C-alpha cells in the first residue's frame, strides 16, 4: 500500500516533463502540467509517509523479481528514509512552482522543456535512491540522478561557464558511481547478495569492511561535497539556474549524506577511527567551506560554499554518532545523529530559501557580483525580508531552526568532554571550538552577503533598476521561511520522526524508542526561545512607534565630507579583507594590479579573486600534466605499416617466450 | 626420402637468405616463385602413395605460387613506372645477418621444443620458423608495397612448410580454401597497390603516414 | 537450415553484383537482412543439429554471435539504404555486394566447428571489408585500407600457424585433427608446450582482428576513414567473431589444463588494451578515431572478463552483445554528424545537439552507455565482470579496471561534449544533411535495444547467454 | 530563591550604567582629573531618550531594529549568567550555547544596522566587529570548556558556580588562571575597551564599536549605549567565575561579595584603560589569538 503509493509517485514525477515535450515550444501548458504532476507526486509521497508514521507498525517493503543478473526490484521505507524523503518532495514541488516564475517556457523556449524533463527525472531518482533496497536499483537511480543533474547544470549549453562546471560535475559523478560500483561489489562479496542496508556479518575490522567504508565515504562524499571532494560544487551551483541550485544544494547533497549514514550503520560496532575520521573530516569541511564562502564575490558561489560548511556540520554529528556506537554511548548517538538529521532538514529549508532569493536578485539585476549591488532592499522589500530570515537561520541564530540542530551537535561534542574515565576521547570536544569559529565566520559571510547586496546605496545601474519578483517566486519563499521559524520554535514537531530514525540506525543501543525530549530540555528551551521571539517583536514594534513622532529623514552623515557617492561605500571585498588576509594560506588568492603609493598617483586598477584551491591549483593542473604525458605517446600511432607489423612481431616473440618458458 | 626433403628444405633456407640480400625487385619475385614451386612439390614426396587429391592440390599450388601470383606482381611492377630497386629501411647486410641469426635461433628453439608424433624430418620446424621470420623481416624492413607483399608470401610459405607435418589433418578442401584466400588476398592487395600508384605515383609506403594522431 | 543461413546472403551478394541500377540496389539489403534474421532465429530456436560431419554446428556461443551479427546487420541494412542516397556520386555495386558477403562469412564463422574452416571464413570476412573501407576513394582511405589489409593478413597468417600448432600438439595421440570436438575429446593428451604456443599464436592472430593492443594499430585508421556503417559492422560484428574464435580456442586450452596460463595471458592483454586505449583517448580530437580506441578498450574488457573466467564469462558474453549494439549506435550517429558537418574533428564540429537534435543527443547517450553508466546494457555486463573479479579476489586487477574505465570516460567525455554542446561554429560549411527517417530510425531502435539490455534482459536471451557460459565452462 | 531572581533582574537592569560611571571615575582619579559624576551615564540616557531621531534616507527597518535587538539579546544573556554564587533565573542543560549564539544574534543586527547606512566608516566598524568576533568566540568556547571539563555539567548555572562550590584545594588553579586572563582580554575586546578600542576617541578610522553607531541618534543611541553597558556588565559577571572566589555561606553575603567583585572589575578596567595605550588595529587579532591560546592551554591542562 505505502510502497505502491511511493512507486506511483515516482512514476508521476519521472514522467512529469514528458507532456511538455509533446507540446510546441511556445505553449506554456506543458510547464503547468509538469508542476501539477510534481505536486501531485509530492502529496502522494507525503500521504505515504503520513500513513506509515500514523498506522504502520512494521517498516514497509516491496520486493519483485527483476530480469537482471541478481537484480531484484526491492524497495522499502524506514524512518531514515522518511527523514530524507520529506525534503525531496517538499523542495521538488516548491522549486517547480518557483520555476514557473523563474524559468518560464515563454522566455526559455530552447531549454525549458529539457529542464523540466530533467527536474522530474531528478526528483524520481532521488526518491528511488532513498527507498532502494537493492544495489543494482540503487546504482541505476544514483546514475540517473547524476545525469539529470548534469543536464540541469548545463541547461544553457552555449554558456561556457555552465558547460565547464557541468563537465567537472559529470566527471565527479562518474568517479562516485565507479566507487559505489566497487563498494557494492565488495558488499556482495561480504554478504553474497545485493540486498541493501542490513547489518553485515563480517567483523568491522576486516579489510573488506574497511574497503567498503572507504569506498562509501569516497563515493558518497563526492556527492555530498566533503572537502577536498567538493571541487565540482561551487561552479555547478553558481552556474545552474537558481531553483536548480536550490534543489541540488538543499536536497541533492543530502543524498550523499544519506549514503554515509546508511553505510556506517552496517556494522554492529564500527571501529572508533571511522567516527574520528568523520568528525575530523567534518570539522575540516565546515571550516574550509565557510572560509572559501566568506571570500567569494559571487553570491551564488558564496551560497554554494556555505552548503559545504553545513554538510561539514552534519558530518561532525554523524561522526560523533559513529564513535558513540563504537564505544557504546547512546547519548552521543542520540545527539550526534539527531542533530545531523535535523540539520539536514533545516538546511533543506533555509538553503533553498536563500537560493530562491538569490534567483530573484539575479533575475532583477542580471549580475552575480556582490560588488555591483547594494540598496535593493528598497526595491525588493519582500525578497530582502525573506533573505534576512534565511541568513539568520543559516548562521544558526536563535530563535530560528538552524540553532536547534547546531545546539544538539554542540551538546554531543561537549558530552565527549564529560565522558566517563577510561575513554580517552576528550579530544573530540575540540571540534566544538572549530564549529564556533565556523559559526562566527558564517556570520561574517552572511552579513557581507545580505548587507552588501540589499543595504546601503546601489553600486551600479543594475542594482538601481532592480524590481521585485512575482508572487509565484515569493510564495515558495514564504513557505520555507515559515518552516524555518516553526522548526526553530517547536522542534518537538519532528522529534518523533528523528527518534524513529535514530532507533532504526542503531537498533542495538535502543531497546525501546530513544527519547530526545527526555535527554535534553527541549521544551524548556523552546519556551525561552519563544520568549525571545516575543521580546524581539515587541521591541521592534516599540522602536517603530518612534518613527511618526519625532524623526527627521536626512542623508547619511558623511563625517564632514560634502559629496559622498555610492562608490565610496565599503565594498564586499574590503569587508572581509582582514579575514581573507588571515586565511590567505588556505585561500591562495590571485591578485593582479599594483597597489597605489605616494601622492597624486596615476589611475590604477587592482583586482583579487579567490579560485578554488583544490580544483584550480591542484586538480586541473594535474590533469593537464597527465594529458600532456599522454600526448607524448602519439608518435607510436603515426607510423608506416612496417612499424606496426614490427609491434605485432614483438608482441608475438615476447608472448612466445612466456609460453615456452 | 628424408634426404630429399632435407635438401629441399636447405634450398628453401638459402632462398630465404638470398631474398634478404636481393637488391633487384625481379630477382625477389622470381625467388619467391621458385620457393613456392619447391614447396608445392613436397607433399607429393611425403604422401605414402600418389592419390589424385594430392596431385590436384600440388598442381593448383604450383600454378598459383609459380605462375599467377608472380604474374600479378610483375604486372604491378610494370605499370608502376618506377626504379626497380628494393629500398630497404636498414641495409641488406644487416637484414641478412638478422635473417641468419633468426635461422640459428629457430634451430635452437626447435631443438628444445618437444617432438610430437613421428615427423618426416627434424628440419621442418626450424626451416618453417626461419622462413616465417624472413617474411617478417621483409615486411618490416622494406618500404616498397610490392616487397611487403612478397614478404607476406614468404610468411605464407613458412606456414605451408609447417603444414607438411600434418597433411592428414588438413583436408584438401581446407588446403584449397587457404590457397583461394591467399589468391584473393594478393589480388585485392594488388588492386590497392595499383590505386596507391595512381594516387601517390610511388610505391613507397613511407608516404602512407597521413593518418596519424 | 545452416546452409540456408549462409546461402541467403551469398546469393544476395551475387544478385547485387548483377543488378544494374544503383538506385534500386540498396533496397536489396533490408529484406535479405530480415530474412537472415528470421532464419537465424528459427535455427537458434530449433538447436539445429551438426552438419558436414560436425564441421558446421551452432554451439551456444555461436548462437549468440549469430544473433548479434544478424540484428546488427538489420539495423545497418536499413541505415545503409538511407546512407547511400547521399552517396549517389559513385556506384554502390561493390559496396552492397561486399556487405552481404561479409554477412555470409560472419555467419560461417559463427557455426564453423573446424579451426581451418573458421580461419577461412574469418579471412573472407576480413577481405570483404577492405573494399568497404576504401569506399571513399581518397588518399586517406587508400592508406587506411592498405594498413588494414597488411596487418590483418599477417595477423590471420599467424592465426593459421597457430591452428597448425594446435593440430600438431594433438599428433601425440593418433592422427592430427582441427575439429574442436576431436580436440576437446583428446584435450588431456595434447602436448602442453605446443598448446601454449598455439594459444599465443592464435591470441595474436585473432587478437589482431579483435584489435587488442599492440595489434590494434589498424583500427583507428580503418574506423576513421570508413563510412560509419562499416565502422559499426567492424566494431560490432567482426570483432565479436574474432572474440568467439578466441573463446573456443581458450576452451580447448583450458580443457588441456592450461587454464592458468591462458587466463593470465588474457587478463594481461585485456589490461594492456584498456591502458593503451585510455592513453590515446585523452585529448583525442577525431570522433571516429575516438570510437576506435573505445572499441579497443571494450575488447580489453572482453578479454579481461573471459580471462577471469567463472561468472565473468557470463558477463563477457553479455558485454559482447552490449558492446556490439552500442557501437552500432555510436558509429551510426557519428556518421550522421560527420556527414552534416563535413568534418569529424572537434575543431570544427560544435553544437551537434542543435543542428542534429536526434543524432547529437543519441551520440551523447551512446557515449554514456558505452562508458558503463546505468541504466544501459554495458553497465550490467561491466558490473557483472567487476563483481566476479572481486569475488575471485582479483582486487588490484579490479581497481585497475575501474581506474582505466575512468580515464577512458574522461578522454571520451571531453571530446563528445565539445561536439554536442554549444553552438555550431559560424562560417563552417554545412551540408544539407538533416536527420531523416531511414538514417534516424535505426539509431532509435538500437538505442532502445541498449536500454532494454540495461533494464530488462528478456528471459530467453538471458538463458542463451547462460547456456553459452556453461558450455564454455571447463570441468577438468 | 525568588529574592535571588528579583535581585538578579534588578541588578541586570539598573547596575550597568553605574559600572560605566565607576570606570570613568577611576580613570579620572588616576589621571588627576575631577571627572564626571558617578551617575553621568544615567543622565546621558535620560537626555537621549527625550531627543528626536535623525534617520538616513538610505536606511531600512533593519537600522531601527538593530539597537533594540541587540539590547534584547544582551538582556537574555544576562538572565542566563549566574551573578556570583547565586543561581541564574534561567538555566537549562546546554544554555551555554544559547548564551554564545544569542550574543551572535545581537552582533548580526548591529553590523547589519551599520551597513544599512551605506557609510564607509560604519562599514569598517562592522567589518572589524565580525572579524574580531571570529577569534573571541573561539576563546570563549575554550574558556568555558575548562569549566565544563571541571564541573562535568553543560549548564552555565552549574558549571560557572562550580569553583565557588569546591574547596580551593580541589580547583584546577592553573587552568582557571590561564582561562581567566584569556577571558579578561575577551571582555575588553567584546566591549570595545582599551587596548582594543577606545570609546572616547573621535577618529572614526580607528574605532570599532563607536563607529558602527555613528548614525544612531536620540532614543536609538540611548538603546545602543544602554545595551553596551549591559553587555559589559554581563561579561564582567561571566569573567568573575574564572577567578577563584572566596566561598560564602548566606545569600546576602553572596550578593555582597558579588558587588564587591564587580566593583573590583570596574576598577581593574579603569586601571588598564588609564595605564595602557590603545593597540594598533592590526595587532588586535594577535591579542585575541593569544587569548584563545591561553584558554586552550587551560583546557589542555585539564586533559591530563
Strand-helix topology:
The complex is a heterotetramer of chains A (661), B (213), C (476) and D (304).
Chain B: H1 2-21, H2 25-46, H3 52-79, H4 92-112, H5 124-141, H6 145-163, H7 172-200
Helix pairs in contact in B: 1-2, 1-4, 1-5, 2-3, 2-6, 3-7, 4-5, 5-6, 6-7
Chain C: H1 2-18, H2 29-46, H3 60-85, H4 93-111, H5 115-133, H6 139-169, H7 180-185, H8 192-210, H9 218-225, H10 228-281, H11 287-308, H12 311-341, H13 352-355, H14 357-370, H15 377-391, H16 395-420, H17 437-455, H18 459-472
Helix pairs in contact in C: 1-2, 1-4, 2-3, 3-4, 3-10, 3-12, 3-17, 3-18, 4-5, 4-10, 5-6, 5-10, 6-8, 6-9, 8-10, 9-11, 10-11, 10-12, 10-16, 11-12, 11-15, 11-16, 12-14, 12-15, 12-17, 12-18, 14-16, 14-17, 15-17
Chain D: H1 2-30, H2 40-50, E1 53-56, H3 61-80, H4 95-116, H5 120-151, H6 156-165, H7 173-190, H8 209-212, H9 218-240, H10 251-275, H11 284-302
Helix pairs in contact in D: 1-9, 1-10, 2-9, 3-4, 3-9, 4-5, 5-6, 5-7, 5-11, 7-9, 7-11, 9-10
Descriptive account of the structure:
The complex is a heterotetramer of chains A (661), B (213), C (476) and D (304). Chain A contains 26 helices and five strands. Chain A is mainly α and 661 residues long. Chain A starts with a helix and ends with a helix. Among the domains of chain A are: 269-542 and 572-586, no CATH class; 613-660. Chain A has helices at 2-15, 18-22, 29-54, 79-102, 112-131, 135-153, 160-191, 207-224, 233-239, 242-264, 272-295, 299-327, 330-365, 381-394, 401-417, 431-454, 461-464, 471-489, 492-505, 516-519, 522-549, 572-575, 577-582, 584-587, 613-632, 641-660; strands spanning 60-65, 72-77, 551-554, 590-593, 606-609. The model of chain A has no long low-confidence stretch (mean pLDDT 91). Chain B is an all-alpha fold and 213 residues long. Chain B is 74% helix and 0% strand. Chain B has helices spanning 2-21, 25-46, 52-79, 92-112, 124-141, 145-163, 172-200. Chain B is globular. The N and C termini of chain B lie far apart (55 Å). Chain C is mostly helical and 476 residues long. Chain C is built from 18 helices and no strands. Chain C has helices spanning 2-18, 29-46, 60-85, 93-111, 115-133, 139-169, 180-185, 192-210, 218-225, 228-281, 287-308, 311-341, 352-355, 357-370, 377-391, 395-420, 437-455, 459-472. In chain C, α3 runs parallel beside α12 and α12 (311-341) packs antiparallel against α17. The model of chain C has no long low-confidence stretch (mean pLDDT 90). Chain D is an all-alpha fold. Chain D has helices spanning 2-30, 40-50, 61-80, 95-116, 120-151, 156-165, 173-190, 209-212, 218-240, 251-275, 284-302, and one strand at residues 53-56. The radius of gyration of chain D is 19 Å and the shape is globular. The chains are: A mainly alpha (661), B mainly alpha (213), C mainly alpha (476), D mainly alpha (304). Chains in contact: A-B, A-C, A-D, B-C. At the A-D interface, α14, α15, α16, α21 and β3 of A face β1, α3, α4, α5 and α9 of D. β3 of chain A pairs parallel with β1 (53-56) of chain D, so a sheet runs across the interface.
Amino acid at each position: 500500500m505505502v510502497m505502491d503509493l511511493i512507486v506511483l509517485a515516482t512514476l508521476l514525477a519521472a514522467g512529469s516533463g514528458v507532456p511538455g515535450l509533446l507540446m510546441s515550444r511556445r505553449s506554456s501548458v506543458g510547464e503547468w502540467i509538469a508542476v501539477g504532476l510534481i505536486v501531485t507526486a509530492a502529496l502522494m509521497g507525503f500521504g505515504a509517509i503520513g500513513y506509515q508514521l500514523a498506522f504502520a507498525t512494521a517498516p514497509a517493503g516491496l520486493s519483485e523479481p527483476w530480469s537482471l543478473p541478481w537484480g531484484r526490484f526491492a524497495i522499502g521505507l524506514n524512518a531514515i528514509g522518511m527523514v530524507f524523503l520529506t525534503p525531496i518532495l517538499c523542495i521538488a514541488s516548491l522549486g517547480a512552482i518557483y520555476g514557473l516564475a523563474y524559468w518560464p517556457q515563454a522566455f526559455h523556449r530552447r531549454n525549458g522543456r529539457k529542464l523540466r524533463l530533467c527536474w522530474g527525472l531528478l526528483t524520481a531518482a532521488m526518491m528511488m535512491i532513498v527507498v532502494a533496497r537493492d544495489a543494482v536499483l540503487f546504482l541505476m537511480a544514483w546514475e540517473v540522478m547524476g545525469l539529470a543533474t548534469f543536464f540541469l547544470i548545463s541547461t544553457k549549453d552555449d554558456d561556457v561557464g555552465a558547460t565547464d562546471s557541468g563537465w567537472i560535475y559529470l566527471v565527479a559523478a562518474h568517479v562516485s558511481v565507479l566507487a559505489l560500483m566497487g563498494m557494492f561489489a565488495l558488499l556482495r562479496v561480504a554478504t553474497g547478495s545485493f540486498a541493501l542496508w542490513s547489518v553485515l556479518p563480517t567483523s568491522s575490522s576486516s579489510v573488506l569492511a574497511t574497503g567498503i567504508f572507504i569506498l562509501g565515504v569516497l563515493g558518497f562524499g563526492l556527492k555530498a561535497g566533503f572537502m577536498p571532494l567538493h571541487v565540482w560544487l561551487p561552479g555547478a551551483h553558481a552556474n545552474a539556474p537558481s531553483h536548480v541550485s536550490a534543489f541540488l544544494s538543499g536536497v541533492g547533497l543530502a543524498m550523499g549524506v544519506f549514503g554515509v549514514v546508511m553505510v556506517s550503520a552496517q556494522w554492529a560496532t564500527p571501529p572508533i577511527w571511522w567516527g574520528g575520521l568523520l568528525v575530523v573530516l567534518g570539522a575540516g569541511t565546515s571550516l574550509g567551506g565557510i572560509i572559501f564562502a566568506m571570500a567569494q564575490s559571487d553570491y551564488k558561489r558564496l551560497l554554494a560554499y556555505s552548503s559545504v560548511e553545513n554538510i561539514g556540520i552534519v558530518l561532525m554529528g554523524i561522526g560523533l554518532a559513529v564513535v558513540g556506537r563504537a564505544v557504546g554511548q547512546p547519548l552521543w548517538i542520540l545527539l550526534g545523529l539527531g542533530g545531523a538529521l535535523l540539520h539536514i532538514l533545516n538546511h533543506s529549508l533555509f538553503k533553498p530559501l536563500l537560493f530562491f532569493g538569490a534567483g530573484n536578485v539575479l533575475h532583477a539585476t542580471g549580475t552575480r557580483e556582490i560588488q555591483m549591488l547594494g540598496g535593493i532592499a528598497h526595491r525588493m522589500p519582500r525578497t530582502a525580508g525573506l533573505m534576512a530570515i534565511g541568513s539568520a537561520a543559516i548562521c544558526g541564530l536563535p530563535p530560528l531552526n538552524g540553532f536547534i540542530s547546531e545546539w544538539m551537535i554542540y551538546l554531543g561534542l561537549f558530552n565527549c568532554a564529560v565522558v566517563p574515565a577510561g575513554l580517552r576521547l576528550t579530544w573530540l570536544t575540540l571540534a566544538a571550538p572549530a564549529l564556533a569559529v565556523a559559526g562566527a565566520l558564517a556570520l561574517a559571510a552572511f552579513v557581507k552577503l545580505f548587507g552588501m547586496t540589499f543595504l546601503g546605496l546601489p553600486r551600479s545601474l543594475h542594482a538601481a533598476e532592480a524590481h521585485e519578483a512575482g508572487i509565484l517566486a515569493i510564495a515558495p519563499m514564504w513557505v520555507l521561511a515559515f518552516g524555518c521559524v516553526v522548526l526553530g520554535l517547536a522542534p518537538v514537531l519532528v522529534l518523533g520522526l528523528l527518534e524513529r530514525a535514530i532507533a532504526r540506525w542503531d537498533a542495538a543501543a535502543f531497546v525501546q524508542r530513544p527519547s530526545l525530549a527526555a535527554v535534553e530540555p527541549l521544551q524548556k528551551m523552546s519556551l525561552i526561545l519563544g520568549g525571545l521571539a516575543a521580546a524581539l517583536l515587541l521591541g521592534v514594534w516599540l522602536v517603530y512607534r518612534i518613527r511618526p513622532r519625532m524623526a527627521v529623514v536626512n542623508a547619511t552623515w558623511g563625517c564632514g565630507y560634502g559629496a559622498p557617492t555610492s562608490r565610496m561605500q565599503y565594498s564586499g571585498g574590503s569587508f572581509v579583507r582582514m579575514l581573507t588576509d588571515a586565511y590567505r594560506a588556505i585561500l591562495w588568492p590571485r591578485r593582479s594590479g599594483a597597489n597605489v603609493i605616494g601622492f597624486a598617483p596615476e589611475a590604477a586598477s587592482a583586482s583579487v579573486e579567490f579560485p578554488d584551491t583544490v580544483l584550480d591549483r591542484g586538480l586541473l593542473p594535474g590533469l593537464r600534466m597527465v594529458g600532456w604525458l599522454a600526448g607524448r605517446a602519439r608518435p607510436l600511432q603515426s607510423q608506416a605499416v612496417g612499424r606496426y607489423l614490427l609491434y605485432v612481431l614483438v608482441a608475438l616473440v615476447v608472448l612466445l617466450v612466456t609460453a615456452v618458458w | 626420402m628424408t634426404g630429399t626433403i632435407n635438401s629441399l628444405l636447405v634450398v628453401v633456407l638459402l632462398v630465404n637468405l638470398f631474398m634478404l640480400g636481393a637488391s633487384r625487385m625481379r630477382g625477389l619475385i622470381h625467388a619467391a616463385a621458385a620457393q613456392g614451386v619447391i614447396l608445392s612439390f613436397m607433399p607429393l614426396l611425403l604422401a605414402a602413395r600418389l592419390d589424385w587429391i594430392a596431385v590436384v592440390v600440388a598442381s593448383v599450388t604450383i600454378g598459383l605460387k609459380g605462375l599467377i601470383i608472380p604474374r600479378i606482381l610483375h604486372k604491378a611492377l610494370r605499370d608502376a613506372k618506377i626504379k626497380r630497386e628494393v629500398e630497404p629501411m636498414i641495409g641488406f647486410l644487416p637484414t641478412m645477418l638478422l635473417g641468419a641469426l633468426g635461422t640459428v635461433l629457430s634451430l635452437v628453439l626447435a631443438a628444445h621444443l618437444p617432438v610430437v608424433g613421428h615427423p618426416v624430418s627434424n628440419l621442418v620446424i626450424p626451416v618453417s620458423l626461419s622462413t616465417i621470420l624472413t617474411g617478417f623481416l621483409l615486411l618490416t624492413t622494406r618500404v616498397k608495397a610490392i616487397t611487403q607483399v612478397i614478404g607476406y608470401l614468404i610468411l605464407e610459405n613458412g606456414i605451408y612448410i609447417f603444414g607438411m607435418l600434418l597433411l592428414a589433418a588438413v583436408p584438401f578442401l581446407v588446403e584449397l580454401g587457404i590457397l583461394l584466400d591467399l589468391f584473393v588476398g594478393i589480388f585485392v592487395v594488388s588492386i590497392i597497390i595499383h590505386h596507391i600508384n595512381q594516387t601517390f605515383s610511388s610505391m613507397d609506403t613511407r608516404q602512407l603516414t597521413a593518418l596519424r594522431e | 537450415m545452416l546452409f540456408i543461413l549462409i546461402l541467403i546472403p551469398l546469393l544476395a551478394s551475387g544478385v547485387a553484383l548483377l543488378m544494374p541500377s544503383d538506385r534500386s540496389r540498396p533496397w536489396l539489403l533490408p529484406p535479405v537482412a530480415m530474412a537472415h534474421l528470421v532464419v537465424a532465429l528459427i535455427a537458434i530456436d530449433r538447436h539445429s543439429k551438426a552438419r558436414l560431419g560436425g564441421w558446421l554446428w551452432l554451439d551456444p556461443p555461436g548462437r549468440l554471435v549469430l544473433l548479434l551479427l544478424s540484428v546488427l546487420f538489420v539495423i545497418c541494412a536499413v541505415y545503409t539504404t538511407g546512407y547511400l542516397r547521399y552517396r549517389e556520386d559513385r556506384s554502390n555495386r561493390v559496396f552492397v555486394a561486399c556487405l552481404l558477403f561479409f554477412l555470409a562469412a560472419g555467419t560461417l564463422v559463427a557455426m564453423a566447428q573446424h579451426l581451418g574452416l573458421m580461419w577461412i571464413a574469418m579471412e573472407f570476412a576480413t577481405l570483404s571489408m577492405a573494399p568497404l573501407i576504401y569506399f571513399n576513394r581518397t588518399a586517406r582511405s587508400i592508406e587506411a585500407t592498405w594498413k588494414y589489409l597488411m596487418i590483418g593478413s599477417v595477423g590471420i597468417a599467424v592465426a593459421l600457424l597457430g591452428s597448425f600448432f594446435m593440430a600438431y600438439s594433438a599428433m601425440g595421440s593418433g592422427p592430427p585433427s582441427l575439429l574442436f570436438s576431436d580436440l576437446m575429446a583428446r584435450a588431456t593428451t595434447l602436448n602442453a608446450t605446443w598448446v601454449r604456443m598455439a594459444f599465443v599464436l592464435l591470441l595474436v592472430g585473432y587478437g589482431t582482428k579483435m584489435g587488442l593492443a599492440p595489434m590494434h594499430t589498424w583500427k583507428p585508421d580503418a574506423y576513421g576513414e570508413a563510412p560509419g556503417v562499416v565502422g559499426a559492422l567492424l566494431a560490432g560484428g567482426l570483432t565479436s567473431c574474432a572474440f568467439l574464435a578466441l573463446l573456443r580456442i581458450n576452451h580447448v586450452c583450458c580443457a588441456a589444463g592450461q587454464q592458468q596460463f591462458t587466463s593470465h595471458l588474457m587478463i594481461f592483454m585485456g589490461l594492456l588494451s584498456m591502458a593503451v586505449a585510455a592513453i590515446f583517448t585523452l585529448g583525442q580530437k577525431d570522433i571516429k578515431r575516438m570510437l576506435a580506441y573505445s572499441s579497443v578498450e571494450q575488447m580489453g574488457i572482453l578479454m579481461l572478463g573471459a580471462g577471469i573466467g567463472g561468472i565473468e564469462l557470463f558477463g563477457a558474453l553479455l558485454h559482447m552483445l552490449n558492446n556490439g549494439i552500442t557501437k552500432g549506435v555510436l558509429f551510426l550517429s557519428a556518421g550522421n554528424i560527420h556527414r552534416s558537418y563535413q568534418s569529424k574533428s572537434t575543431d570544427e564540429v560544435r553544437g551537434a545537439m542543435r543542428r542534429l537534435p536526434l543524432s547529437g543527443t543519441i551520440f551523447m547517450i551512446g557515449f554514456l552507455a558505452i562508458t558503463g553508466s546505468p541504466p544501459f546494457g554495458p553497465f550490467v555486463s561491466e558490473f557483472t565482470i567487476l563483481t566476479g573479479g572481486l569475488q575471485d579476489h582479483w582486487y588490484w586487477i579490479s581497481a585497475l579496471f575501474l581506474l582505466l574505465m575512468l580515464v577512458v570516460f574522461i578522454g571520451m567525455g571531453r571530446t563528445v561534449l565539445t561536439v554536442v554542446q554549444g553552438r555550431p561554429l559560424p562560417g563552417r560549411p554545412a551540408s544539407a544533411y538533416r536527420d531523416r527517417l531511414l538514417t534516424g530510425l535505426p539509431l532509435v531502435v538500437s538505442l532502445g535495444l541498449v536500454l532494454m539490455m540495461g533494464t530488462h534482459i528478456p528471459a530467453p536471451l538471458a538463458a542463451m547467454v547462460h547456456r553459452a557460459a556453461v558450455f564454455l565452462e571447463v570441468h577438468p | 530563591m525568588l529574592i535571588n531572581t528579583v535581585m538578579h533582574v534588578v541588578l541586570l537592569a539598573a547596575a550597568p550604567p553605574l559600572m560605566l560611571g565607576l570606570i570613568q571615575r577611576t580613570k579620572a582619579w588616576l589621571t588627576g582629573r575631577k571627572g564626571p559624576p558617578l551617575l553621568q551615564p544615567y543622565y546621558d540616557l535620560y537626555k537621549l531618550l527625550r531627543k528626536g531621531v535623525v534617520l538616513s534616507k538610505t536606511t531600512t527597518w533593519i537600522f531601527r531594529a538593530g539597537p533594540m535587538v541587540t539590547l534584547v539579546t544582551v538582556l537574555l544573556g544576562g538572565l542566563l549568567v549566574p551573578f556570583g554564587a547565586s543561581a541564574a533565573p534561567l538555566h537549562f542543560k546546554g544554555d551555554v550555547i544559547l548564551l554564545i549564539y544569542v550574543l551572535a544574534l545581537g552582533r548580526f543586527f548591529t553590523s547589519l544596522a551599520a551597513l544599512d547606512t551605506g557609510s564607509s566608516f560604519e562599514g569598517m566598524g562592522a567589518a572589524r566587529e565580525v572579524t574580531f568576533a571570529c577569534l573571541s568566540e573561539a576563546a570563549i568556547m575554550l574558556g568555558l570548556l575548562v569549566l565544563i571539563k571541571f564541573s562535568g555539567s553543560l549548564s552555565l548555572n552549574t558549571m560557572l558556580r562550580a569553583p565557588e562550590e569546591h574547596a580551593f584545594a580541589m580547583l584546577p588553579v592553573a587552568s582557571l588562571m590561564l582561562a581567566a586572563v584569556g577571558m579578561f582580554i575577551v571582555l575588553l575586546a567584546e566591549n570595545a575597551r582599551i587596548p582594543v578600542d577606545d570609546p572616547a576617541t573621535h577618529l572614526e578610522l580607528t574605532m570599532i564599536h563607536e563607529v558602527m553607531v555613528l548614525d544612531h541618534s536620540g532614543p536609538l543611541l540611548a538603546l545602543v549605549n544602554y545595551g553596551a553597558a549591559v553587555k559589559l556588565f554581563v561579561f564582567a559577571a561571566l569573567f568573575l567565575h574564572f577567578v577563584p572566589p572566596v566561598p560564602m555561606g548566606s545569600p546576602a553575603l553572596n550578593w555582597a561579595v558579588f558587588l564587591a567583585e564587580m566593583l573590583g572589575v570596574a576598577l581593574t578596567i579603569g586601571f588598564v584603560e588609564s595605564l595602557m595605550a590603545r593597540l594598533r588595529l592590526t595587532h588586535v587579532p594577535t591579542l585575541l589569538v593569544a587569548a584563545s591560546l591561553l584558554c586552550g592551554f587551560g583546557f589542555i591542562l585539564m586533559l591530563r
